[in-house]
Structure prediction request, 286 residues.
Amino acid sequence: MKLIKKVNILIVGLGLLGGSYAKGLKKLGFPISAITKEQSSVDYALENGIIDYGTTKIEPEIIGEADLVVFALYPHIFKKWIIENQQYFKSGAVLTDVTGVKGCIVDEIQQILRNDVEYIAAHPMAGKEVSGVENSDENIFKGANYLVVPTKKNTKEAIELCSNLGELLGFAKVAVLSVEKHDRMIAFLSQLTHCIAISLMCANDDPDLVEYTGDSFRDLTRIANINDEMWSELFLSNKDVLLEQMDIYRNTFDKLYDLINNNDRDGMREMMKLSTKRRREFNKKV
Prediction:
């Protein structure tokens, strides 16, 4: 199933990702409405042609007109929104999301959702170290990965529609994987990397560091400029898997520590060769 231009799309949560979805889809000719928390976000989006209509209120008519609803909300707000407002969805509507953790929401939402409405989870692996619709940019999807995360409750048609959404937005690759694999991969590829960046920035308070730093430190800590409200919720929502990955990383770091401490240059070089070999595989995906 493919998205066609007459499909009405509703974005719930007009921040960086919600705004970027709206921007990209509006340029493709889709009618875009939005419901979001701040009136200033609605005003900005309307003034800049990002959406056709926006509101800060729950308007049953707007929700009921949507064929596809994209949720760009924190996990706990997403669940609460569904519980309180699902009666307004039209029969046959498809819901998707941008949430960074799936195990904490997918099964619960699919269990409480009406039988005539389908939720297919997705995760755009893209973003910036800034927030808000004023920083939205559909170009952040170019070259990025888009993850579709179905369960046994999802239809083939909804999975195809969600995949097509990723293709239309310009993602370089669309992958389909289970909830469990998604959360395990995200714990390592995204959450652990943010933990490392946070720890590094908190490890040294020398005020002169900024005067001496080079590109390696800037590149490694780019994601330390972090939305603490969102990421703390994501860490705790995926706590068990994240802690497992942190233990694996800690053991590997300790191995390198011991090699340096024991003047084991050959051991260090072997780790460096393995690191270089594995990093080259990522370079091929760029």
In short: The mean pLDDT is 95. The longest strand covers residues 121-125.
